[in-house]
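tokens incoming
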């Protein structure tokens, strides 16, 4: 068959056709082929083909189906086209033979396949990895590797937390300063697209967002940060699960690309996977909290019903020694009576400590009575049992503003532990409890100050159980705690600062991206 015989017929075909010489170079291409390859016939003739043929060529390939393969064009391009091709018969060209190859552009399909593969890898990661942070980091990396994406971030609530955090990021060299810079820009009046996306529960696309931000003085704190990447458009997709907004997936689209329907569908699918991961981690956290609470109740019940009763029995036996001592001769009587008194004192101390442990293991009294009422009860009990004056000053705004009972429960336990430590170790005559709310900073500050002999250094240096418990409760809410001597040098000050958790239903007002 000659060129004149098959050329016009191949030129009329809607798919590409090329004649490939036995040296692996293009000899001829039809009209559809030049359109697909985006070059003229003159530019294409003599170029090595990307196809791997039975006669031998030079390009790696991917199997597509029976008789068809997929390859990249150009093979070494960072963002190539993808061609599906099939090898045809040998034909004669000017006395020489070549192989006829049919091909078509499957770039969009191949990118879709890559996105499906990314979803599959994320699903596998979710199934095998219990760390939410690692899953979201892997998810952000998969999104960033997707065609046309310069960077990706996932913002969400950590399990048990109430403030948005950046828990997955890819493409940016710096990660840590992001949220502080974002909040600084918001305070200057910058519009936060992710806030809008989560508030309206829809995907938001903003073309030319990078240029807008760099030209707006309100975004000045973020200028250096956003300039790390070369990007143009911005896409924010909310994470939705069971009717709740759990965060957002934000994507920075590379220059010369646009957020196509295929890309937006992919981002929506990834956001669904991220929401599932966050929701699952939250459910697991709640299950662990419930299990711990039930275990604390069981321990409290067993301590009260068993250990406390046994200690009480020991105390009764110790008091009986006094009666026995009166019937004995001196000096044995004096010795038995001294032992009885010593055992009685030890029993009283153990009972007092056990009651404190049982109280700490019980559900927070502040959740049942309210923080102020519970602290008044604590102050009265300490004054009655230990002959200590307790001055109590609690800001009523705490109960008005704070909606989380577990937060006020931790406030009560921190104060109670600090008072218990003071009474046990420092023998004070006065303890001052001060709890105040700074509404502007959304911060609760607790001060427990005593005029005692000071907490033993081993308790602060080694972190006794009480101090460890207080630190754990403060850290849970992202706060801090310090134990220092008072200015007078004899007493001790325990200061704790805890950011007030927001109600998730109103997270937009607390600052989102």
């Amino acid at each position: 068959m000659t060129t004149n015989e098959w050329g016009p017929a191949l030129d009329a075909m809607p798919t590409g056709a090329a004649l490939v010489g036995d040296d692996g170079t293009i000899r001829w291409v039809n009209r559809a082929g030049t359109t697909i390859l985006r070059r003229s016939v003159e530019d294409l003739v003599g170029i090595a083909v990307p196809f791997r043929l039975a006669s031998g060529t030079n390009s790696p390939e991917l199997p597509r189906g029976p008789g068809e393969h997929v390859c990249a064009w150009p093979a070494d391009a960072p963002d190539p086209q993808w061609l599906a091709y099939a090898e045809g018969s040998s034909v004669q060209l000017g006395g020489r033979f070549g192989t006829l190859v049919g091909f078509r552009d499957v770039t969009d399909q191949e990118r879709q396949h890559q996105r499906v593969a990314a979803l599959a890898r994320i699903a596998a990661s979710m199934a095998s990895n219990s760390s939410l942070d690692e899953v979201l980091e892997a998810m952000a990396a998969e999104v960033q590797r997707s065609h046309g994406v310069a960077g990706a971030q996932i913002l969400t609530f950590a399990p048990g937390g109430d403030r948005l955090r950046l828990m997955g990021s890819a493409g940016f060299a710096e990660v840590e300063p992001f949220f502080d810079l974002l909040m600084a820009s918001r305070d200057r009046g910058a519009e936060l697209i992710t806030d809008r996306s989560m508030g309206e529960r829809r995907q938001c696309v903003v073309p030319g967002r990078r240029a807008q931000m760099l030209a707006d003085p309100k975004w000045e704190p973020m200028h250096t940060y956003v300039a790390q990447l070369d990007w143009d458009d911005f896409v924010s997709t909310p994470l939705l699960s069971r009717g709740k907004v759990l965060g957002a997936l934000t994507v920075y689209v590379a220059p010369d690309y646009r957020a196509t329907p295929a890309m937006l569908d992919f981002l929506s699918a990834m956001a669904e996977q991220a929401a599932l991961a966050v929701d699952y981690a939250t459910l697991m956290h709640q299950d662990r909290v419930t299990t711990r609470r039930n275990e604390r109740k069981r321990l409290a019940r067993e301590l009260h019903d068993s250990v406390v009763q046994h200690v009480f029995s020991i105390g009764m036996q110790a008091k009986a020694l006094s009666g026995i001592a009166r019937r004995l001769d001196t000096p044995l009587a004096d010795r038995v009576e001294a032992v009885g008194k010593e055992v009685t004192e030890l029993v009283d101390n153990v009972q007092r400590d056990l009651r404190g442990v049982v109280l700490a293991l019980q559900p927070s009294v502040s959740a049942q009575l309210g923080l102020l009422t519970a602290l008044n009860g604590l102050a009265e009990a300490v004054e009655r049992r230990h002959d200590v004056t307790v001055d109590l000053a609690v800001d009523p705004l705490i109960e008005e503003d704070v909606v989380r009972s577990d937060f006020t429960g931790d406030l009560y336990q921190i104060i109670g532990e600090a008072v218990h430590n003071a009474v046990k170790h420092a023998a004070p005559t006065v303890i001052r409890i001060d709890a105040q709310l700074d509404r502007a900073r959304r911060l609760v500050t607790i001060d427990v100050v005593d005029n005692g002999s000071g907490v033993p250094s081993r308790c602060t240096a080694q972190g006794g159980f009480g101090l460890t418990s207080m630190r754990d409760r403060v850290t849970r809410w992202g706060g801090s705690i310090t134990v220092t001597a008072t200015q007078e040098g004899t007493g001790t000050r325990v200061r704790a600062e805890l950011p007030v958790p927001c109600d998730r239903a109103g997270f937009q007002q607390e600052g989102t991206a």
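note: The chain has a mean pLDDT of 78.
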